[in-house]
Every structure is written in structure tokens, then in C-alpha cells.
Write a structure and sequence with these properties.
This protein is of the alpha+beta class. Among the domains are: 57 residues, Nucleic acid-binding proteins (OB fold (Dihydrolipoamide Acetyltransferase, E2P)); 73 residues, no CATH class. It has five helices and seven strands. A hairpin with a 2-residue loop joins strand 4 and strand 5. Helix 2 runs antiparallel to helix 3 and helix 2 runs parallel beside helix 4. It is rod-shaped, with a radius of gyration of 36 Å. 22% of the residues are buried. Keywords: Membrane, Transmembrane, Transmembrane helix. It comes from Modicisalibacter luteus. This is DUF4190 domain-containing protein.
């Protein structure tokens, strides 16, 4: 049978259950098999033996649909609960991938350091690829695909321009090709 505990006396360890059709049954704590302690307004399922309730358990609850809303317990926590619920909505609570941000910063640094531009471009491209991978693995938490692609394009442009506009000086090239002990004449 199903019913609701109307009262429970902790000192006497006795309680009363009322069914939907108005019948009353008493039970003792020794017959309680439910979760927690029995108390008023707890829905229960039980068997009847000699007009007493036995094997009293909590009434199984129907499975509820999951929702992004977290009920507020009081007004002080209402804002933080709303923020927690908002994190699971589409696009809210996502932050830029740290790899993506590092990639764009390194690519921009390549603009200011001409000699290091190819090396910084390579580092920026690697960081951007790591950022794209990071975002692909956890899209619900991270964003920044556009930042990654912008870093790759900027790194390629800066590296290419620095190589085209400033070729290696001829003196450094002659030092690389010089054989020790032989002087070049020219």
C-alpha cells in the first residue's frame, strides 16, 4: 500500500501513516526500512500485518527530467545558482582556450622582432594547433577557433614578409661557406 506519514514521535519511536482512502496505520521505528529517518509528510510504501504497517519504505520517486536550472535554496545563493545553471546553456560560460590566446600573442610579438619572426611564427602556429585541438575536445567549455586561425595566418604573413624583406647578410653567408685555412679571393 501507499500512504503518507502524518506524524512520528521520536521519543516513542512510533508513527502514523494515512492512505489515500483515509485508513490509518501505526508503525514503529523497527519497521522502518526507508532512507533517512521517518518524519511528517514522507510518502511511503508499506505492507499491512495485524492492522499495523510493516516493511515501511520511502515511496519511489518518478524519474525527473534533467534541467539546467538549479533551484535556489535561499536568496543569498540565488545569483550563484543562476550562474551555475547558465554555464550549461549554449555558448554561455565558455572561455577562450589558453592555447589560442598564447598563439595570437606570440604571433603579434613576431611583428616587433624581425629577426625572430620565423621562429615566433612557428611557435605561434604550434600553439594555435594545440588550441584548435583543445577546443575540439571540449567545445562546451572553450572557444577561440577564429583566434587560432588568425594566429596561424598572422604568423605565416609575418614570417614570409620578414624572410622576403630581410635576406641573410652576405657576410654571414660567406662565413658559413668558408673553409678553415683557405682565404677567399674576390
Amino acid at each position: 500500500m501507499d500512504g503518507k506519514i502524518t506524524d512520528f514521535d521520536d521519543d516513542a519511536q512510533q508513527g502514523t501513516i494515512v492512505t489515500r482512502d483515509g485508513q490509518c496505520y501505526t508503525f514503529s521505528l523497527a519497521e522502518w526500512r526507508g532512507r533517512g529517518l521517518p518524519g511528517p509528510d514522507v510518502l511511503v510504501r508499506f505492507d499491512v500485518r495485524d492492522s499495523h504497517a510493516v516493511q515501511v519504505i520511502n515511496l519511489p520517486e518518478k524519474q525527473r527530467r534533467a534541467s539546467g536550472h538549479v533551484p535556489a535554496t535561499d536568496h543569498a545563493h540565488a545569483a550563484s545558482d543562476a550562474e551555475l545553471a547558465g554555464e550549461y546553456e549554449e555558448g554561455v560560460g565558455r572561455r577562450y582556450s589558453s592555447w589560442a590566446l598564447a598563439a595570437i600573442i606570440v604571433a603579434i610579438l613576431g611583428l616587433f622582432f624581425d629577426v625572430l619572426a620565423p621562429l615566433l611564427g612557428l611557435v605561434a602556429a604550434i600553439l594555435a594547433v594545440l588550441g584548435l585541438r583543445h577546443i575540439r575536445r571540449q567545445p562546451q567549455h572553450y572557444r577561440g577557433r577564429g583566434v587560432c586561425w588568425a594566429a596561424i595566418v598572422l604568423a605565416l604573413i609575418v614570417a614570409t614578409l620578414s624572410l622576403l624583406l630581410e635576406p641573410l647578410p652576405a657576410t654571414s653567408l660567406s662565413h658559413l661557406l668558408a673553409v678553415p685555412g683557405h682565404e677567399q679571393t674576390g
